[in-house]
Amino acid sequence: MTFPAFLRAPWVRWTGLLLLCSAYLQGGIDKLADFGGAVAEMRHFGVSPPAPMAALVIGGEIGASLMILAGFYRWLGAGYLAVFTLMATFMANRFWEVTGPARFMAENGFFEHLGLTGAFVLVAWYDIQKGKDGTR
């Protein structure tokens, strides 16, 4: 099967990567703009020490996303976001502890984040398979 040339264009892949990273860019920028809110979020989830961990999360979300988009150690940025997303999923979407309508929302969020984790694993795997061990 032959696909149209525009589907093979580099901008299509880059746009897909941007969409994949969009929640992390938005989250990191929002946390940076409201650092007090980011610290409060860390406290809410029992993360300690809250201020340094909020700074680490902000740096990780923005930094790893930019690595993926720039192709600079893309596999490492994707690996970071895969691990981060998996950990955050088990922390924030504990659907097995919730009842009623809230359980549906938490369970849905849990499995959506598992899908994001899988997507980042595939990005890292693809770059490693292509021998991209550094810059693109």
What's this entry about, in short?
The protein has helices at residues 10-33, 35-44, 50-70, 74-92, 101-129.
- Helix-strand pattern: HHHHH
Radius of gyration (CA) equals 17 Å
Total strand count, please?
Answer: 0
Distance N terminus to C terminus? 28 Å
Q: What is the helix fraction of residues, given as a range?
A: over 70%
**What structural category do the secondary elements indicate?**
mainly alpha
| β-sheet strand percentage | under 5%
Mean pLDDT: 94
Largest sheet composition: none
Give the overall form.
globular
Count of DSSP H/I helices: 5
> Low-confidence segments, ≥5 residues, pLDDT <50?
none
Written description of the protein model:
- With 136 residues, the protein is mainly alpha-helical.
- It is 76% helix and 0% strand.
- Helix 1 packs across helix 2, helix 1 runs antiparallel to helix 3 and helix 4 packs antiparallel against helix 5.
- The model has no long low-confidence stretch (mean pLDDT 94).
Key features?
5 helices; mainly alpha; globular; 136 residues
Please specify the SSE layout and strand pairing.
Blueprint: H1 10-33, H2 35-44, H3 50-70, H4 74-92, H5 101-129
